[in-house]
Amino acid sequence: MATCCPGDSLILPRNCHVSAISGMVLSGAVPKYMIPEFNCDWGIAGGITPLQVEHAIKELQLEGRKAAAVFVTSPTYHGVCSNLREICRVSHSHDIPVIVDEAHGAHFAFHPEFPEPALHQGVDIAVQSTHKVLCSLTQSSMLHVSGDKVDKERVSACLRTLQSTSPSYLLLASLDAARAQLSDKKDTVFNNALDLATKARTSITNIPGISLIGSSSFSNFSTVDPLRLTVGARELGLSGFEADERLYADQGIVPELVESNSITLTINLGTCEEHIQRLVSGLKRLSSEVSFPILPKASGRMSVKADAFVNISLTSTPREAFFAKKGRVDIRDSVGQVSGELICPYPPGVPLLIPGEIITHEALDYLELVVRQGGSITGASDPELSSIFVCI
Asked: Which residues form the Orn/Lys/Arg decarboxylase C-terminal domain (predicted)?
């Protein structure tokens, strides 16, 4: 809202968080989607390259349009970081501001071994969920503005429009407490967490049938948050949901994120040696109890999510579709029609269906797969996913 007026184009990744879609509904921005690199072995999307941003800007120029802003998610939920410095160079050369969803990277400024923070790379707006890795209360976050490409008064006006006039001083106090905790030993406060992450990676790497995502998993993205552990048991023939159930039953482990092919865990300031021992013990037991390999079974699941982001077709803006008249149809009769709902597996809150997009077989197949494997879906008016609202 602070950078886009109704009808302005916003360049952003198609796997952005659901809140970015809501932002387009409120602002009236027209999306220009970029499709991130996808690792089919893991079923996980990576980041956005500077070349993709440049192509998107030039494609809009050929249409006689200019982007009002570029929006990038970095790091992703799995810790994959984009080259924000180069993205800023490309965008700023066209006088376009860069907004970064840095929800999972609020800790990057507090240790030299972490990826470089977004603000240090020249972005104009960075949004950080302080509660995710740092120690403030849930819902508390920070918005940082830098440089002169974004009108700070407009940012303040938008905040006043959206925020409550009765702010929670519990949340504000928790943000200040998190700030105080970090400022005391800002260069060493994460030393223990990094040591534990290294120990966990070393131990997990040696467990048969268990794999870990790393910097080599994506050809264009060599920087990954070291505190994120994305673990796969596909060589054991287990989905992420099945591995999650077994780890919880055995060791009481609750991952940060559970997906079809993996689970993602976060090491933070509250993690201790016992937590790592329980994780490693749980994965070892998982490996010893399940026969492997059963690769064909796992491979069949891995391409489904990638297919869901192919051939995306937008017939109206998210705002137009949000306010359009809608009718309910059987879920399988909806293919080819325009989605009237915003539906996504959660977490990570990445939408599979967005208002204004043509509904595809691939998107429905993935949603049904998530439900069959025990995942949860948010945003659907019909929790059973037997029907859906479409624009009429």
From this structure: 324-371
